[in-house]
Structure formats: C-alpha cells, structure tokens
C-alpha cells in the first residue's frame, strides 16, 4: 500500500472517522509488520505536525508503558514508541494497548526488529469464535474482541493480550505461567477457567473465576494484587481508580459463549454496548434520560435484537424504540 493511502487510513482512524465495525479491522492491519516503515513515517509526521502538552496522567501512563515494555530508554531506540505519548495525548488512541503488547511479545534483547511471529484473532461485532491455543488451552472470544499471542506460545511464560471479552480454559503447566494482559490489568493462572472482560469503550474491566485460582494485578491509578476464588468477580473502574470484589455465579457470567446475554446489576450503557456488539447494530439514545439505574435480566440465545429491545422496554417505563436496518433509535 502506498504512503498516501496509509496516511488517509491512519488519519481517519485518529479522527474517529471509522465506523465501529471497521475499528478491529484497522487494528489488525496496523499491528502487522507490512509497510511498518511507512506507518512509522506517517506517525512521525503526526508527531511533528501536532502541538500538544501532556498532563500528569499521560506521563504516569508513559512511565507504566516503559516499565511493562521493559526497555531501557538510554540504550534502545524505539522511534515509534517514543512518539506514542504525544500521539496518545492528542488522539486518545484506543489501540495503544495492542501496539504495546505487540512490542512486549517481541524480543527484548535490545534490538527493535521483531523476532517472533504474532498470532492474531479478531472477532467483529455479531460473531463469536472458539480457539484452541498451541498449548492445548481453549479460548472463547466474544463479539468485538481481539486476541494476540506468539504463534507457538513457546517460552517460560505464556503471554497473551486481550481487548474485549474472552473465557479461558487453561491447560495446566506449572512451570509456565499463563498470563492475559489487557489495557488495565494482568491476570495470571496456572490451570483454571476464568472470564476476562476489558473493552476499550467501557469504564470497567472485570475478571470472573469459574474454577482454580488467578492473580489479578493492576498498576495504574491504584496498585493492587489480588488472588480471587471461584465464583468471585474482581472489577476495576479505571476512570475512578476503584476496585471491588463481588460474589457471582461464574458459570452464568460465561454463558455468553452459548449465546445467552446475562446482566446482573448492569448499567443501561453496558446493556446497550453489549447489544450493539452481539447483534452488530448501532443504538442511539439520550444518556441523560437513560444513564441511571441498574438492571438484572437474561436473554436466551434464540432472541433477536428486536425481542431484546422489547424486554428492555418493559424494564424502562416510557422507553420507545424504532429500527432502521442496523440502526436503533431509543426515545
């Protein structure tokens, strides 16, 4: 692809000019090594063109990034990553977590050249996917999710990056920890079944344990390291910097992989975003009117988006909706 078209793609994405169904496709293309030199040149141009100042949160985020990448800034040249601070402060780039993980999963001996291949699975809205990992572990990816890992999961640590939601059934290998990294947390398990939900457009990330044990680490606005037990859910509100532990039915939480939609004390926003991802639709509503309240409801795999909205209508007196193809309007 020539530089002109690459510049158009990147600029449109930074300006939030992509429809939501195209975002994951863009992320998948952007992290590939194809045309990496030209992509770097375009980001350099953005770096030089924009005038922006970082705040304390951005600087803390960069410090966290440097720690997680494990790079020594004095001896390693990473032109692209050196520009991410400014680009992120300007554009609030949602795929920054994916890019950083892409670098982390490559050789960290001091060479900026990638030394291993990355397997990537992108699940668009309206779909789900089951994956068998090279180590025998199983993963179910929910709609609107992306999973990255080294193509053979070799090495002393099995590292994966998740953006979205997935249920993991981990093959036991005590000598090789299994670590799932998301934008806001790290989850470590030796052999267990657990669910991770961490969408970039959500204010919270959650880990729910079905069996075994996992350790959840957060190094952001708060620094937390917690071991959770079966039927516990650990929730991190990254906007407020708060954490909580809830008692839940873990099997019920993971029933999305069977087609169910299950909400326990969920916000209206969370329900709508889940509906958008599940049915590949766009929903417009007045957040001031429907922003409050918590809801508990379960939808069966056989219900379509209209049936789901009809049930939601009964839970919200006065709610009315209309549909035009894949666009829903709530009044």
Automatic annotation (TrEMBL):
<dbReference type="GO" id="GO:0016989">
    <property type="term" value="F:sigma factor antagonist activity"/>
</dbReference>
<dbReference type="Pfam" id="PF04773">
    <property type="entry name" value="FecR"/>
</dbReference>
<dbReference type="InterPro" id="IPR006860">
    <property type="entry name" value="FecR"/>
</dbReference>
<dbReference type="InterPro" id="IPR012373">
    <property type="entry name" value="Ferrdict_sens_TM"/>
</dbReference>
<feature type="transmembrane region" description="Helical">
    <location>
        <begin position="84"/>
        <end position="105"/>
    </location>
</feature>
<feature type="domain" description="FecR protein">
    <location>
        <begin position="122"/>
        <end position="215"/>
    </location>
</feature>
<dbReference type="InterPro" id="IPR032508">
    <property type="entry name" value="FecR_C"/>
</dbReference>
<keyword id="KW-0812">Transmembrane</keyword>
<feature type="domain" description="Protein FecR C-terminal">
    <location>
        <begin position="260"/>
        <end position="330"/>
    </location>
</feature>
<keyword id="KW-0472">Membrane</keyword>
<keyword id="KW-1133">Transmembrane helix</keyword>
<dbReference type="Pfam" id="PF16344">
    <property type="entry name" value="FecR_C"/>
</dbReference>
<protein>
    <submittedName>
        <fullName>FecR protein</fullName>
    </submittedName>
</protein>
């Amino acid at each position: 692809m020539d530089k002109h078209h690459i510049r158009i793609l990147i600029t449109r994405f930074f300006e939030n000019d992509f429809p939501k169904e195209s975002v994951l496709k863009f992320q998948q293309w952007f992290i590939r090594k194809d045309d990496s030199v030209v992509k770097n040149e375009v980001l350099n141009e953005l770096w030089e063109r924009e005038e922006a100042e970082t705040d304390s949160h951005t600087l803390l985020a960069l410090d966290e990034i440097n720690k997680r990448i494990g790079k020594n800034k004095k001896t390693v040249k990473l032109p692209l990553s050196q520009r991410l601070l400014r680009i992120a402060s300007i554009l609030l780039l949602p795929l920054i977590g994916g890019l950083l993980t892409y670098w982390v999963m490559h050789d960290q001996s001091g060479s900026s050249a990638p030394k291993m291949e990355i397997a990537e699975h992108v699940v668009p809205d309206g779909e789900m996917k089951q994956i068998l990992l090279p180590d025998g572990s199983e993963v179910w990816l929910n709609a609107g999710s992306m999973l990255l890992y080294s193509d053979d999961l070799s090495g002393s640590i099995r590292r994966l990056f998740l953006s979205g939601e997935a249920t993991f059934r981990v093959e036991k290998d005590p000598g090789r920890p299994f670590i799932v990294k998301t934008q806001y947390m790290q989850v470590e398990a030796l052999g267990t079944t657990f669910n991770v939900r961490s969408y970039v457009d959500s204010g919270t990330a959650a880990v729910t344990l079905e069996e075994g044990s996992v350790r959840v680490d957060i190094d952001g606005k708060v620094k937390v390291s917690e071991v959770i037990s079966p039927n516990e859910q650990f929730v991190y509100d990254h906007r407020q910097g708060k954490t909580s532990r809830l008692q839940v039915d873990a099997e019920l939480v993971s029933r999305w992989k069977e087609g169910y939609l299950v909400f326990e004390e969920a916000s209206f926003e969370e329900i709508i975003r889940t509906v958008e991802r599940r049915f590949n639709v766009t929903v417009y509503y007045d957040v001031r009117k429907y922003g409050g309240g918590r809801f508990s409801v379960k939808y069966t795999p056989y219900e379509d988006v209209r049936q789901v909205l009809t049930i939601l209508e009964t839970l919200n007196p006065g709610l009315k909706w209309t549909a035009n193809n894949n666009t829903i309007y709530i009044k």
